[in-house]
Write a structure and sequence with these properties.
Length: about 475
Amino acid sequence: MRRLSILATLAVAALYVGCTPGDDKDKEEEEEEYVDSGVFIEIPDDAFRARLFEHGIDLNNDGKISTSEAERCKSIILDDCEGIRSLEGIEYFTALEELTVQGTHAFPETPCGLLERLDLSRNTKLRYLNCSYNRLKFLDVTACTQLEQLDCTQNELTELDLQRQSALVSLICRDNAIADLRLDVHPALEVLQCSGNPIPELDVTRCRNLRQLYCGGPGCPIRELDLSGNPRLENLILHDTEVGELDLSELHELHKFVCQNNPRLERIAGLEQRTKLSYLMIEDCEHYTGSLRIADFDRLEKLTVQWTGLEALEIRECADMIAVGCGFNRLESLRISACPSLTDLLCPDNLLPGIDLNGTPALQNVYLPGNRFTRINLPATVRVLECTNNPLDALDPREFPRLTHLVCNGCSLTELDLSRSAELEQLHCCGNRLEMLDVSACAPSFYLDCTDNPELHTVYRDAGQTLDGQFPPQTEVKIK
C-alpha cells in the first residue's frame, strides 16, 4: 500500500495536542510577521479550550483565540480527548488538515470519549480524521471532499454519508450501528474495516485498489460478497456473516485470509490457487465440507482449519509451514508431506485412524486426542505428544527418544516401555490398564499422573531421583 502522506507527517505522543501553522509550501507565509485579526472566537467547552491554550494556539499570549490564530492551525491532535464533550468552535479552523479526537480505549467495550456530535461542514481542507472511541451519533464530513483517511471506530453512528469523499484511501468504521454503506465513488480506497455494523449488503466491486477488507460481526446480515472487482486485495477478514459462498478466484495478491464463524458458508472457490497466502484461518464454519488441498504455498507459515465439516486435508510442499491446527472437524484423512519447517501439529477430535506424514523432520509438538488411532506413527523428533482417548493397540515411547511430555490418558494401554525416555519430564497415563511402570530411566525430576489404573501395583524409581504426582491407592513406589 502506498504511504499515506498525512500519517507520514505525524510524530506525536499520546495526550498531545498540536496546532501547527503550516508546511513547507507555506514557508514564506509563515516567516511573515503575525498580525492578529482582533476578532475572537468562542470555545464553549472548557476542556477543549484548555487543551488548545496549553499547546500554543494563542500565538500572541493575550489569553484569547482569534480567528486569525485559528485559521493558521493545520493540525489538532488529541490522542486522549477524555473530558471533552463538544468541539464547538472547530468551524473557525478552516485550514485544518488533520484532526484527532480519539477517546481512550483501554476497555474498548466502554469507550471513554464523550463526544456525541461532530460537525465538520466548514473544515473543507480536512484530509485526516480520527474520532474513534467516542459516543458519536452524528458525524458530518460531507464538505470534506479532500478527506483521505477516516477512523470513526466504536461510536454510535447509524449512518455515514461519504458520497463526496472520492479521495478516500482508508475507511475504518468498526463497531457502530451503520446499516447502509455506499462505496460506489471510491476508486482510491485501499483500506476498509467495517466489521461490527448491521450492514445487509456490501458492494466493493468499484473499489479496484482495495488491499484490506475486514467485514462482518455478530448480527451482520451480509449474505453475499462479490470480490471480483478487487484484484489487489491482500488481507481479507470475514467473520460472523450469513455468506454461503465465497469466490477468491480473482484475488491473486491475497496474503492473509481469515474466515470465522460463518455458519452458512459451504464453498470457498479459488482458495487452493491462492499460493501467496502467508496466513490462513477457517474456523467455525460447520457447513464447509469436503476436502481441502494446500500445495506449493511457499509463504504459508500457519494454517488453521477447525470446527468445520471437512473430511480430508492434504498439505504438501509448504516450505515455510510452521504450525497446522485442524481440530474439531470430521477429518478421516490427513496427509502432510514436504513441510520441512513444520514443528506443531494439532488435530484433536476428528475421525482419523492415522496420519500420513512424510518429509516433516522438524516436527516436535503433536496433539491427537479424540481420534481413532490404533498406532502412533510419527518422526523420532517429537518432544511433546498428546494422544488421549484413542483406541491404541500399543504405544512405544522408545520410538520417540526426545520426548519431554507424554499424555496418553484413556487409551486402554497395558504397558509403557520408558527405558529410552531419558528426557521425559512428565507422564500422564490415567485411565489405562497398566500393571507396572518403570520411570527410573526418565529425567531426574519427574511428574507422574497414573490415577485410574486399577491394576497398577508398582512404580519403580532410582534412588536420588524425585517423583511427584498422583497415584492409585494400591500403587507402591519402589526404589530400584
